[in-house]
Specification:
Elements: H1 5-19, H2 26-33, H3 37-40, H4 47-59, H5 73-88, H6 94-104, H7 110-121, H8 126-153, H9 157-185
Helix pairs in contact: 1-4, 4-6, 5-7, 5-8, 5-9, 6-8, 7-8, 8-9
Length: about 190
Amino acid sequence: MALTREQLTDAAVGVLSEFGLADLSMRRLARELDVQVGALYWHVKSKQELLVDVAAKLLGSVPEPALPAPEMAPMAIGALLQQLRSALITIPDSAEVIQLAQTMRPEALAPLGWLLSFLEHAGIPAEQAFYARHLLLNHLLGSIAAHQEARALVGEPEAQEHAQESGQEAFEYGVRVILLGLSLEHPKNAV
């Protein structure tokens, strides 16, 4: 059976999930898939292109939400960010993968487009909505990276649980503060 791009992406997600980004190499994937390294490049031009597919796959579990009423946009934005965080938090180095993919091909990451749509639907002008999405994504990805680093450094189960709880609370607080700031910046809008 011939190798498909989907099989390659699935294998890359598997290696990333189990070992992290440092161990995700094209050679390792070739070994995992029992093919020559050159066979991988038939499907992707580079590891970076593969990582865009990996990022899209990681975010693929987030269901597309309905466009909220403008006054419900802040809750919808918070809920979407929480779903994104839940989809990524257990995957080592997922924040770095998403950041790379967002820089290379943001259109490949549909949930990031939804976030922008929610902000614009709430009445934030397009340019400011783009900046607000950037701020919210930096908060999301930073929260995930900090959580993963803390879990890696803390060995005791109780300390890991505390790191997880405080990380979640800090994430939610940050989202509320950003949305409050947006409402102050755009007082005529629902955000």
